[in-house]
Amino acid sequence: MTDQQIADHQLPTARPKASDQRSFSGTSTTQAEALPPDVLAAVLKAAITPHRDMRVLAALLEREDDERRRLLQGLGYGPDAD
Questions:
Q1: What is the C-alpha separation between 45 and 65, in angstroms, rounded?
Q2: Which residues lie closer than 8 Å to 80 by C-beta, 6 or more apart?
Q3: Which band of pLDDT confidence, cut at 50, 70 and 90, is reported for residue 48?
Q4: Helix (H, G, I), strand (E, B) or coil at 76
Q5: DSSP labels, 5-30
């Protein structure tokens, strides 16, 4: 969570636990789960989307469609079913 997100959503903060051994330079912590699920999903989507390679995604979706077609055909569904 960024300081801006914490402020924008008025999220609760807490002091870091003394037992936490992770590297951390701040004075307070906030749990991502404090955001409503739809807001958290939007934050994640905004962070991930610019890094997607649309050619890779298109190839993956095509492969998924081919596999689905083969599975359905093997189960006796679809135009090429026996």
A1: 23
A2: 73
A3: very high
A4: coil
A5: HHHHTT---BPPPTT--S----S-B-
